[in-house]
């Protein structure tokens, strides 16, 4: 990756972060994916006492259906149990295939269990924070949320924590696709609108023109 591409990617990386400050909540909701570091972050927050309930949501998505056979939530929950989270403090939703389903299927699961948390800490990949926030607020607007992720710099994330099945260029392409969705999904009713600064959109367009277009929505 050239310095030019890295600088463009970091601009998207910074924008995708919500920079929320942690506060105690009723539940931690981990939105699962190909990145098991997200499971570790969710478990760490539970073990630190930020919330009394840990929920994992994720079946097999666009990427994981090609690299795993086990639902994301089942794998992530096992990681949390191995880290010391009691099994009876974990809930698993393992049917969802996208972020909107993560939220709506979790809502259904909690209703079935007669649980009604009002505040959530949502845990996601670093470059999915903003999109997760916008999606949650669209699907479940009456609840309050804080979004967080593994606390890594862009370079650290690429060198240590992205799935070995994915290259750094793959991660940049995914970030580009997520920014496109932040722009177009409000009109589809999938997310609340988020302002995109002109310089961030210019970086997006430059990355698309450089070939980082594999994860754009059709």
From TrEMBL:
<dbReference type="InterPro" id="IPR003848">
    <property type="entry name" value="DUF218"/>
</dbReference>
<protein>
    <submittedName>
        <fullName>Uncharacterized SAM-binding protein YcdF, DUF218 family</fullName>
    </submittedName>
</protein>
<feature type="domain" description="DUF218">
    <location>
        <begin position="26"/>
        <end position="144"/>
    </location>
</feature>
<keyword id="KW-1133">Transmembrane helix</keyword>
<dbReference type="InterPro" id="IPR014729">
    <property type="entry name" value="Rossmann-like_a/b/a_fold"/>
</dbReference>
<dbReference type="InterPro" id="IPR051599">
    <property type="entry name" value="Cell_Envelope_Assoc"/>
</dbReference>
<keyword id="KW-0812">Transmembrane</keyword>
<keyword id="KW-0472">Membrane</keyword>
<dbReference type="GO" id="GO:0005886">
    <property type="term" value="C:plasma membrane"/>
</dbReference>
<dbReference type="Pfam" id="PF02698">
    <property type="entry name" value="DUF218"/>
</dbReference>
<feature type="transmembrane region" description="Helical">
    <location>
        <begin position="50"/>
        <end position="68"/>
    </location>
</feature>
């Amino acid at each position: 990756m050239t310095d030019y591409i890295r600088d463009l990617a970091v601009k998207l990386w910074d924008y995708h972060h919500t920079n929320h400050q942690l506060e105690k909540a009723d539940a931690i909701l981990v939105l699962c994916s190909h990145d098991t570091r997200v499971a570790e972050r969710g478990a760490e927050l539970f073990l630190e006492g930020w919330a009394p309930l840990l929920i994992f949501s994720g079946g097999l998505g666009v990427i994981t259906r090609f690299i795993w056979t086990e639902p994301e939530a089942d794998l992530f929950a096992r990681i949390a149990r191995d880290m010391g989270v009691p099994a009876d403090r974990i809930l698993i939703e393992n049917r969802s295939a996208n972020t909107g389903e993560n939220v709506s299927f979790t809502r259904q699961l909690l209703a079935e269990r007669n649980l009604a948390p009002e505040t959530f800490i949502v845990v996601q990949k670093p470059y999915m924070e903003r999109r997760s926030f916008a999606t949650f607020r669209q699907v479940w607007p009456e609840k309050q949320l804080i979004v967080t992720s593994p606390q890594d710099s862009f370079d650290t994330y690429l060198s240590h924590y992205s799935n070995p099945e994915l290259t750094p260029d793959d991660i940049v392409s995914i970030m580009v696709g997520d920014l496109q969705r932040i722009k177009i999904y409000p009109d589809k009713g999938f997310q609340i609108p988020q302002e995109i600064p002109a310089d961030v959109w210019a970086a997006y367009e430059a990355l698309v023109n450089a070939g980082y277009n594999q994860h754009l929505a059709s």
